[in-house]
Design goal:
Strand order of the largest sheet: 8-7-6-9-10-12-11-13
Shape: globular
Strand content: 15-25%
Radius of gyration: 26 Å
Bound molecules: S-adenosylmethionine
CATH superfamily of the largest domain: Vaccinia Virus protein VP39
Distance between the termini: 49 Å
CATH topology of the largest domain: Rossmann fold
Largest sheet: 8 strands, mixed
CATH architecture of the largest domain: 3-Layer(aba) Sandwich
Number of strands: 18
Helix content: 25-40%
CATH class of the largest domain: Alpha Beta
Oligomer: single chain
Length: 490
């Protein structure tokens, strides 16, 4: 028992079955509350409540999505008596004449996820357990999902990444310092009929000393600040130490060919070298790494962002305190982002840094796997030129962008790029001629053959052919490293 929660897994499994039988799903939420249902906040509840009809499915949305009370009769009509008993047994609601939810329980994809209710900002308790937040979504989208024997989720919170890993891992360990987080994770596994997730309480990797995993996930409590107010946000470590520890420990705990996906943050003492520290950590990790920086800001902007729940004097005091903290450390920039590590059996530890727009991110797990596979193959090539002899195909949807300007009545190319239409949505600068090469790729042909045929079609002379080859190699390499193209046979 942790607070009101009772880790009664039999009751949670019964409740999960009752919820599914009652039609509680993402589709039902969207149907009843509209496309923006998941971005609504506490203040939107009165409006949302009034959208709901009097049906059993709407009762479930009212109870669990909006976290509002219903009569016991209504709850029984939607969940059955056994479902209501299960709700009481888990402590997720208080049952009298009314059923009053103590938690929110959301359909997330095919999963059901219980967590503490809507945030009350400053009034949230120190051990508040959040739901599937925007950062959890970013980590989910960036997690490679190969079939693995063992997976680890560090700082599991309500357990979302552990539950997702349980779909493609033999066994999953979920760790957290917060016992309420682990109670939710245990309940959430049972709610979904998942039996291969085990919880261990402890700090970071302490509970798994000496063990290795094929996949490690961690949405770290990475916010750099002078505070230790909320366990989900503020770690007990200073500066960016929690991120360094997570990254280096993840590398130590990866099995050969294993992947780690982490959300972390890092400071820069010189704004001209914003990623120096995180690059240093990835180099020390001995793994191949991909750093995807989502944000970098000056300390005051960072402080304002993470104190947006405050107003007036309280906000001013917090900004002063945070600014003093960063000033004393000599910090010029604070960055946040994801780091993906791949431990190669044969060694190899190159780093790649890209910016990532987290608002424009789709599921990128497969893309990331392809990116690391391609990187490993590229590292084996004796030279860039050797790429011309490889057979390379297109692995994801691409969009060719060209910007033309008028010149003497004709159109002249000024800019062009090959854009990834899915996943991380990165773009690679490419002339119109190289776009032709990329559009003609065929995994049965060598890159040199594709370049030559394109040059022929465009009527190029020797010098132009050489320039086309050089640019084609450069662009192809970038697209391979981004997982948009793949070597034949991968
Ligand atoms: C940003 S939340 C992420 C929660 C969840 N994994 C997600 O993505 O929604 C960070 C989590 O790390 C946990 N945490 C904080 N300090 C920790 C530590 N030293 N060791 C392990 N977990 C910790 C918090 O309790 C919280 O659950």
């Amino acid at each position: 028992m942790s607070g009101n929660l009772v880790a009664d897994t039999v009751a949670a499994e019964t409740l999960g079955t009752a919820l599914r039988r009652g039609g509680y799903s993402e589709d039902a939420v969207y149907r009843l509350l509209g496309d923006d249902a998941y971005s609504s906040e506490r203040g939107d509840t009165p409006t949302d409540e009034r959208r709901l009809p009097q049906t059993p499915a709407a009762t479930l949305v009212r109870l669990f999505f909006l976290q509002l009370g219903v009569t016991t009769e209504e709850a029984e009509a939607a969940l059955g008596r056994s479902g209501v008993d299960a709700l009481e047994a888990t402590g997720l609601a208080e049952i009298g004449d009314q059923v009053i939810p103590r938690a929110r329980l959301l359909p997330i994809g095919k999963l059901l996820l219980a967590s503490d209710g809507f945030s009350r900002d400053v009034d949230d308790p120190a051990d508040y357990v959040a739901t599937y937040t925007p950062t959890a979504r970013v980590l989910d989208s960036l997690t490679p999902r190969p079939r693995v024997e063992r997976a680890l989720d560090v700082g599991t919170g309500s357990g979302i990444h552990a539950l997702l890993a349980a779909q493609h891992a033999g066994r999953v360990i979920a760790t957290d310092v917060n016992p309420r987080a682990l109670a939710y994770t245990t309940l959430n596994a049972a709610l979904n009929g998942i039996h291969n997730v085990k919880c261990r309480q402890g700090s970071l990797f302490e509970p798994v000393e000496g063990e290795t995993f094929g996949l490690i996930t961690c949405n770290a409590p990475y916010v750099i600040s002078p505070e230790t107010r909320w366990v989900y946000r503020d770690s007990e470590f200073s500066e960016d130490e929690v991120s360094e520890r997570v990254l280096l420990s993840a590398a130590e705990h990866l099995a050969d060919d294993g992947y780690a996906a982490m959300l972390v943050s890092w400071i820069a003492l010189d704004e001209k070298a914003p990623d120096e520290r995180v690059i240093g950590w990835t180099e020390a990790s001995g793994c191949n790494s991909w750093i995807l920086s989502t944000m970098n800001s000056d300390p005051l902007t960072h402080a304002a962002e993470w104190n947006s729940h405050l107003v007036g004097e309280a906000l001013g005091d917090a900004l002063d305190e945070w600014a003093r903290y960063f000033d004393e450390l000599g910090v010029e920039l604070v960055s946040e982002g994801a780091v993906i590590l791949h431990k190669r059996s044969g060694g190899g530890h190159s780093s790649r840094v890209d910016e990532l727009d987290e608002e424009d991110l789709d599921d990128a797990g497969d893309q990331i796997l392809r990116a690391f596979e391609a990187r490993a193959r590229l590292e084996e090539l004796p030279s860039d030129k050797a790429l011309l002899e490889e057979r390379i195909g297109v692995a994801s949807s691409l969009r060719l962008e060209r910007e033309l300007e008028p010149a003497g009545g004709r159109a002249v190319d000024v800019e062009g790029s090959v854009d990834l239409a899915d996943g991380t949505k990165h773009a690679v600068d490419a002339s119109a001629d190289v776009q032709e090469v990329i559009a003609s790729l065929d995994s049965r042909l060598r890159l040199s053959e594709v370049v030559d045929t394109t040059a022929d079609r465009l009527g190029f002379d020797d010098e132009e052919i050489e320039a086309l080859r050089e640019e084609a190699v450069e662009v192809t390499r970038e697209l391979l490293e981004l997982g948009a193209l793949r070597f034949r046979g991968d």
